[in-house]
């Protein structure tokens, strides 16, 4: 039976370090959070971010803009935050209204203040192994892998999902550790090859957003399973991997909820403190 890899436990340890780092900064770091329009889901994230920030001695500055804010008005607002020396990090809450393209917007955040780690300059640094600010979810996955104590060198890692926010940057972080990385996606499934890749994974990381996509009996005996997926099924939140069957075969597995999720917001706070240190 697999050991549970719980994000909360790892997060608590990292939070202690963040508190120490905040204590030695000469300022109270400020996180500016920008939300455009109303969204119940995003409001929940904002609440959790605010609580996390305040517990760590970080000021959470919340800006709510009208739902009809234009792309150029949002850019102007971001530029003000860029120029504001008291602001150390900026986060744009998702989803954005249809008239705003997140990809365009994220490029206007100063790379030094881009605490989501999604600015092309920050993503680019991952390629060179020089990134200070890492995208939060891949960073959370790397912390969970560290928690297992496993040496990634030469390990057969299979990532299912190749999004810009999870799969692609994660593959680069794992290559940096000399893991052998296979990235699967919809094309792999359509070609009927997903199963064969999943079966060989010593470390399996799934970030797709489809409940039950990975059948538990495909998990290699003793594998480490990190399930990033978040799916609502009949009032329950589940991941992308069939948990009960996978748990019997894996050595470590993340629960959903309670695995990657709780660590992601902690990574955001760590990025903020790293940003403040470097400014
Ligand atoms: P996305 O929609 O941007 O990407 C989905 C990926 O899955 C793509 O690479 C696509 O090719 C692949 N895919 C789709 N169907 C597939 C199939 N049948 N077989 C193989 N691959 C398939 O998704 P995302 O933004 O990366 O999010 C993925 C999941 O992770 C979602 O459930 C999301 O809610 C969750 N998520 C969780 C966190 C967290 O902090 N825990 C953070 C980000 C995303």
Q: Would you kindly provide a written description of the structure presented here, covering whatever features stand out?
A:
The protein is α/β, with parallel strands linked by helices and 279 residues long. It folds into 2 domains: 25-113, Leucine Dehydrogenase, chain A, domain 1 (Rossmann fold, 3-Layer(aba) Sandwich); 136-261, 3-Layer(aba) Sandwich (Rossmann fold). Helices cover 43% and strands 16% of the residues. The chain is built from 11 helices and 11 strands. The chain has helices at 7-24, 40-55, 71-83, 102-106, 120-127, 136-148, 167-176, 186-190, 194-200, 243-249, 261-278; strands at 3-4, 30-36, 59-65, 89-92, 156-160, 180-184, 203-206, 224-227, 231-233, 236-238, 252-253. The strands form 3 sheets. Strands 1-11-8-7-5-6 form a 6-stranded parallel β-sheet, sandwiched between helices. Strands 3-2-4 form a 3-stranded parallel β-sheet, with helices on both faces. α6 (136-148) crosses α11 (261-278). The model has no long low-confidence stretch (mean pLDDT 97). Nicotinamide-adenine-dinucleotide (NAD) binds at residues 137, 160-163, 165-167, 184-186, 188-189, 194, 207-210, 213, 228-231, 260-261, 264.
């Amino acid at each position: 039976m697999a050991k549970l890899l719980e994000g909360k436990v790892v997060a608590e340890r990292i939070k202690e370090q963040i508190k120490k780092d905040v204590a030695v900064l000469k300022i109270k770091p400020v996180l500016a959070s920008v939300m455009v329009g109303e969204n119940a889901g995003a409001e929940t994230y904002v609440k959790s971010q605010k609580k996390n920030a305040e517990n760590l001695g970080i000021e959470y500055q919340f800006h709510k803009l009208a739902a009809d804010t234009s792309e150029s008005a949002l850019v102007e607002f971001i530029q003000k935050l860029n120029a504001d020396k008291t602001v150390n990090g900026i986060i744009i809450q998702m989803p954005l209204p249809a008239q705003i393209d997140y990809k365009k917007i994220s490029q206007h955040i100063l790379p030094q203040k881009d605490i989501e780690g999604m600015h092309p300059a920050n993503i680019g640094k991952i390629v060179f192994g020089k990134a200070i600010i890492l995208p939060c979810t891949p960073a959370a996955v790397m912390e969970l892998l560290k928690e297992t104590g496993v040496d990634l060198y030469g390990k057969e890692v299979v990532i299912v999902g190749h999004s810009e926010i999870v799969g692609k940057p994660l593959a680069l972080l794992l290559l940096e550790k000399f893991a052998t990385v296979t990235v699967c996606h919809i094309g792999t499934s359509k070609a009927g090859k997903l199963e064969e890749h999943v079966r060989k994974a010593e470390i399996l990381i799934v970030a797709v957003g489809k409940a039950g996509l990975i059948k538990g009996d495909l998990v290699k005996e003793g594998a480490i399973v990190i399930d990033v997926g978040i799916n609502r099924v009949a009032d329950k939140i589940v991941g992308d991997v069939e948990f009960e069957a996978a748990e019997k075969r894996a050595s470590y597995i993340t629960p959903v909820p309670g695995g990657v999720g709780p660590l992601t917001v902690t990574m955001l706070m760590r990025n903020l403190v790293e940003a403040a240190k470097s400014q």
